[in-house]
Design a protein that fits this description.
By secondary structure, the chain is α+β, with helices and mostly antiparallel strands. 21% of the residues lie in helices and 21% in strands. The longest helix has 20 residues, at 198-217. It is elongated, with a radius of gyration of 20 Å.
């Protein structure tokens, strides 16, 4: 599933191609995505893109009249820039045509993604109850910190991994990056969130930011379905310490990486490095 770094990578990949360009035509080949594509999306024709932003795993495109469209890549979605002459693929469900050399196509075999629409001054209801951004990319500061996590975690009995993957506590920490962040912070993923010390939360917050920033810099993670806006896969998987490495030696201590299910998600950790 595309996570925060993959969405940020997609944004940075498509932004230079569509910013300050007029959207000439919206073609909807299949409106039945996770939520039906609203008819208002057609109103974006003739409008000019003025800004792109990411909120959690959503990619929001703002137009010159104040309207905006919001993409969510779901489990297998991708956005890519191509030519109008490039043959449309089987699962290309939506096209934004700017000119002959610039077409933004949404590809999604499983159709769990979405294209939403918001009026001037509005946000999609899917933005309600989202926690703080872990990285202050679009603002000078973010309320996310170790202190924030510590205060939110008091009396919580859920595993720390489940806690940091909850978008109400911090957005965008998906399964891959939760595993990696907890390893670098030396915290066992099944430890109750309320039993993690403030000092450890301070360390964990820094690890989350560091892991996500490095993943963005390297283009996201190479997953089966993910490609960036240029159609190329990411490369962060080459530097994973625990995710997907069951039975392999820990890169720090040499112990075998273990795997278990937490919240129905595969979880990887080192029993020696993480306590």
């Amino acid at each position: 599933m595309p996570e925060l770094p993959e969405v940020e990578t997609t944004l940075r990949g498509i932004e230079p191609h569509i910013i300050n360009k007029k959207l000439e035509k919206v073609l909807i080949h299949n409106a039945k995505l996770r939520w039906p594509i609203p008819k208002q999306v057609k109103k974006l024709e003739g409008k000019t893109v003025v800004k792109l932003m990411r909120r959690a795993k959503y990619l929001q495109v703002f137009f010159d009249d104040g309207q905006s469209a919001v993409w969510h890549l779901g489990m297998s979605g991708s956005l890519r820039i191509c030519s109008a002459f490039e043959e449309r693929k089987k699962h290309d469900h939506v096209e934004w045509q700017f000119d002959q050399d610039t077409v933004l196509r949404y590809h999604d075999p499983r159709r769990f993604g979405a294209l939403l629409w918001a009026n001037l001054g509005e946000e999609p209801e899917q933005f309600d109850n989202l926690g703080p951004e872990p990285l202050p990319i679009y603002q000078e500061t973010t309320e996310f910190s170790g202190e924030w996590l510590f205060e939110r975690s008091r009396k919580k009995t859920s595993p720390i991994k489940t806690f940091i993957m909850d978008n109400k506590n911090v957005v965008g920490v998906g399964n891959i990056y939760a595993n990696e962040s907890l390893f670098h912070a030396g915290i066992k993923p099944n430890k109750p969130a309320g039993r993690v010390s403030k000092q450890k939360y301070m360390q964990l917050a820094e690890c989350i930011q560091d892991v996500l920033a490095k993943a963005i810099k390297q283009g996201g993670s190479t997953l089966r379905d993910f490609v960036g806006g240029d159609g190329q896969p990411g490369y962060f998987q080459q530097e994973l310490f625990v995710y997907g490495r069951t039975g392999e030696p820990c890169k720090v201590c040499g112990s075998k990486i273990k795997e278990e299910k937490i919240g129905q998600r595969s979880t990887f950790y080192c029993g020696r490095c993480q306590r």
